[in-house]
Design goal:
With 929 residues, the chain is an all-alpha fold. Strands 1-2-3-4 form a 4-stranded mixed beta sheet. Helix 32 packs antiparallel against helix 33 and helix 37 runs antiparallel to helix 38. The longest helix is centred in the C-terminal third of the chain and has 25 residues.
Length: 929
């Protein structure tokens, strides 16, 4: 579908990015992130004017002195809450405390502690806490709940839970809000079991030390001296006066949550933990307790049901939601958009999107990202551009994270120029993050457009500078294009630009170099990686081991394996598989078996590759029983034995004369339609080696019918089988199919079979040796001469003439030798093409080539058929007077030629001459003895 072309890019007043498409009347905004700023709450009295004055005045203390005298504690709280910077919050608080009539308030301290915690100003928070204790202001449940929240959001889960321990030391039992906060922190940390246990202990009214599970959380990175929870903070807390509240709940009966937010947190907890039944039970308990359901409750339940594959349940919940008078919000429909997209129901997802606007709701960033993702992933170009037009009407912006999706869509559709234009406009107008640059570069690399990725890399490098991510992708690009030297130079140049390679850089570079068999380079980088404090991955070690194995450097491969173990990296089945297979191929079966036992001892299960290698290993030492055990192990794996292993077992059984066992595996492969060309060829060899030629021929015929004759190896096997059985013509027919129909090139194995056919077909042995010599010496047209000779000797004259056509083309180069001329002359003679045969002979003489015996025999036959008596006499005379070595086959050809020409008298004379020559030769040989 033709899409509108990007035309204009311009910056809007707010610094956003506008994208105008051809055919659209307006523009669409693009921005790094679409941030909807929240509005300030409406306050009564003088507060709005005070807040406005504080915001306008650069000198905050001066503004406070002018406008904040005689404020009530509640008004002071509002002023503190409305500060957007932690420094201002602290300044305002210190100014309030400096006033004579100020009364210390835990609420004020809570506001300040929250601001400092959110800004992760732990040192200032510590000082504020100590000041709170010094002023005899005691923390409440709200204080502790807030501190658990800010520490949890900072990723300090252990420290967050230490606040609950501190509560216990002060005799304060967590209220429902604090409990819910703890559960949320543990849920966000994916510690679902601990969150569930804490909730249930809270319900029972007693939280024990072990319920916090601080020991099992492990040692987390502290914040140096700023991490104060175990020192001055808790010492000050311990000195504080106890409020006299029991660490257990006052009410010994089971506690039941009363807040909708608590139930929502629990439902979300069990949903993320994959415990759908528990989530449903909480939902039922919420209904039973009479707690009012809200959008969040339904949205969470809908999300859980959908992700668990119960889309119908999710749709039923939407109906229940509407029945209860709870209007679905944008998040509700966002959830359904995601669920329908996962289910592949694009139409339903788009209907949900349309419904948002239809119901008067406003799509948010999540909505637009989700719909763009759905459309882009399906390359629905026109629909994407229609959505862009809608975005313009709604005044929304597309953030940078959508750029890779849009670029990929265009690249998938072959619209590389549009993708390039889009990327360029984004790059010029916005400061794209390294993550986005890397993602776009990776798209280019995966599409084989490494030069485009490199251009983008250079632009970024020469501009704001590349990050490690972009370097990693560029190294990958050079690897894919096999430009390994550039990859190494790029790696070496990172430090010059103030960047240090990360773990991914090292691993990917080493694996790339090892895959290219640049093992020396990969070993050097491996050493650098370890010196930098990184531990190479198992895949990295395996890649180097594999590279050494391919180069038959097994001692080096073993050394790397030992280094891997000493580093503490555990080998996997791939590592063992590479090493075991290399040792087996090298004939070192004892070492292979040693590593196999080590693998089993390490608790690693053998895969198909390893077991196949072990079958080969046992085969090499003639252990049928050992190979059988490996094969039985493979039968227990998913999918059972593969065809490679099965073929190996057929071969092993055949070598040991166990035909019935070999047949059983062969029949099983045929029955399961798993046999390949090697299966037929191996079974054929089994029968042939056992002298069961009829059975071998049957397999050869089945193989031919199966269509598996698709390579020189399979053809060679079948032709050899035919030749052994004496089916020479069938062998010739198969050779023609091999050459003409399949257009395959003969190899050494092919010619080995062809020479056997020539010998069995009665071709003179001396001539066979000459053909073999020409072939192994690499003489031009030696291959074609052999093939032509095969067709001629088998009487397949039309095929032989096809081959002769190649000689005609080669004659102009002067590269044809005597054996090739001989083959052509023989073919023409056999087919009765006398003129062509004689023409070939004349060309042969013109090039100064001496005819050999085979050529002369062919010429004599040719002269006989043409009744060219003088030609026959000339060759007879040359042999009689020593110009040509006496040869019985040539004499017989001369005799036959005279008879063909109806000159029996000359034939009789030639016969007498042959007998005389033979007797003379015998006398000479006797005298020499």
């Amino acid at each position: 579908m033709e899409v509108a072309h990007a035309q204009n890019i311009a910056r809007d007043k707010g610094g956003g990015f506008r994208f105008k498409l051809r055919g659209l009347s307006k523009v669409v905004n693009f921005s790094p992130k679409n941030v909807n700023k929240g509005k300030r709450k409406n306050y009564g009295g003088s507060l709005p004017s005070i807040l406005k004055a504080l915001e306008a005045e650069n000198d905050l203390v001066k503004a406070l002195e002018l406008h904040c005298q005689n404020l009530s504690p509640k008004e002071q709280t509002v002023i503190l809450k409305e500060q957007t910077r932690w420094e201002n919050t602290l300044k305002v608080f210190e100014w309030f405390k400096s006033q004579k009539d100020y009364i210390s308030s835990v609420i004020h301290y809570n506001v300040v502690l929250r601001a400092l915690g959110r800004a992760q100003r732990w040192d200032e928070l510590r000082l504020c806490w100590i000041d709170m204790e010094k002023n005899q202001v005691f923390p409440t449940n709200n204080t502790y709940g807030m501190l658990v929240d800010v520490y949890g959001k900072a990723g300090l889960v252990k420290e967050a839970l230490l606040w609950i321990k501190h509560m216990q030391s002060r005799g304060i039992y967590p209220d429902e809000v604090t409990m819910s906060t703890v559960v949320k922190v543990l849920k966000d940390a994916k510690d679902y079991d601990r969150a569930d246990r804490f909730y249930k202990c809270w319900c029972s009214g007693k939280i024990e030390q072990e319920d916090l599970g601080l020991d099992s959380l492990g040692d987390q990175q502290s914040i140096s001296f700023k991490q104060f929870l175990s020192t001055e903070l808790f010492r000050s807390g311990a000195r504080s006066h106890s409020l006299g509240i029991s660490v257990n709940g006052d009410d010994k009966s089971e506690r039941i949550p009363r807040l909708a937010s608590t139930y929502n947190t629990l439902i979300d907890l069990y949903g993320k933990a994959g415990r759908l039944k528990d989530a449903t039970d909480v939902f039922a308990s919420m209904l039973k307790a009479g707690v009012e359901l809200d959008n969040f409750t339904f949205n969470t339940m809908i999300h859980i049901c959908g992700k668990q594959g119960s889309l119908s349940e999710a749709e039923a919940l939407l109906d229940k939601m509407e029945e209860r008078g709870i209007a679905p919000d944008t998040k509700t429909y966002n959830t359904f958009i995601s669920l329908y997209a996962d289910a592949g129901n694009v139409d339903a997802a788009l209907r949900c999107y349309r419904k948002i606007s239809k119901l008067g709701l406003s799509p948010d960033d999540v909505t637009f990202r989700a719909i763009l993702k759905i459309l882009c992933e399906r390359n629905m170009v026109q629909e994407v551009e229609d959505l862009i037009q809608e975005l313009e009407h709604s005044g929304n912006c597309i953030d940078e994270s959508s750029l890779p999706l849009l670029a990929k869509m265009y690249l998938d559709e072959g619209l590389a120029e549009r993708a390039k234009l889009l990327i360029e406009k984004f790059r010029v107008e916005l400061r794209l993050s390294s993550r986005i640059y890397a993602a776009i570069m990776d798209l280019y690399v995966e599409k084989g457009l490494s030069s485009e990725a490199e251009a983008l890399f250079i632009i970024k490098r020469d501009g704001s500078g590349n990050g490690v991510l972009e370097y990693n992708v560029m190294i990958k690009a050079y690897g894919k294009s096999k430009n390994y030297q550039n990859a190494l130079e790029l790696f070496r140049g990172m430090r010059n630009r103030g960047l240090w390679p990360d773990e991914c850089t090292y691993n990917s570079l080493i694996q790339m170099l090892a895959g290219a068999d640049l093992t020396d380079n990969s070993k050097d980088i491996l050493a650098e990686m370890q010196e930098a404090g990184f531990i190479p991955s198992c895949s990295t070690f395996s890649a180097i081991i594999s590279s050494f194995a391919k180069q038959k450097k097994l001692s080096d491969a073993v050394d790397v394996f030992r280094e891997m173990l000493s580093t503490g990296v555990k080998p996997n089945e791939v590592t063992y598989g590479v090493l075991i297979n290399a040792l087996v191929e090298d004939g070192n079966t004892e070492e292979a078996m040693k590593y196999f036992r080590a693998m089993e001892h390490a608790g690693i299960s053998a895969n198909h590759v390893i077991l196949t290698s072990m079958i080969k290993a046992y085969g090499k030492i003639g252990s049928v029983e050992g190979a059988k055990q490996m094969y039985e192990k493979m039968e227990e794996l998913h999918g059972g034995p593969d065809v490679v292993a099965s073929n190996s077992m057929i071969n092993l059984y055949g070598e040991n004369g166990m035909v019935s066992e070999a047949e059983a595996i062969y029949d099983d492969l045929i029955r399961n339609d798993s046999a390949d060309s090697s299966t037929f060829a191996t079974m054929m060899d089994v029968y042939k080696n056992m002298g069961m030629l009829d059975e071998a021929i049957q397999i050869a015929t089945k193989m031919k019918r199966s269509g598996l004759l698709d390579n020189s190896g399979s053809f060679n096997k079948v032709m050899a089988c035919y030749a052994t059985k004496g089916l020479l013509v069938e062998c010739g027919e198969l050779l023609h199919e091999f050459l003409v129909e399949k257009k395959l090139s003969p190899d050494a194995g092919t010619f080995k079979v062809l020479f056997t056919v020539l010998k069995k077909g009665g071709f003179p042995r001396k001539a066979v040796k000459e053909l073999e010599s020409s072939l192994w010496d690499g003489k031009p047209f030696a291959k074609q001469a052999t093939i032509t000779s095969v067709f001629s000797i088998l009487g397949l004259h039309s095929y032989a003439l096809e081959s002769c056509g190649i000689f005609k083309k080669g004659h102009s180069t002067g590269a044809i030798d005597a054996s090739a001329y001989n083959a052509a002359i023989r073919a023409y003679t056999a087919y009765g093409k006398i003129d062509q045969a004689l023409n070939m002979f004349m060309k042969m003489q013109g090039e100064g080539l001496e005819p050999d015996i085979v050529t002369l025999i062919s010429l004599v036959k040719c002269y006989g058929k043409a009744s060219m008596i003088e030609g026959i006499k000339r060759i007879q005379s040359q042999m009689k007077y020593g110009a040509i070595e006496v040869n019985e086959s040539l004499y017989r050809a001369i005799i036959d030629a005279y008879r063909i020409a109806n000159r029996n008298d000359l034939a009789e004379m030639a016969a007498q001459e042959m007998r005389l020559a033979s007797e003379t030769q015998e006398t000479i040989e006797a005298q020499e003895v």
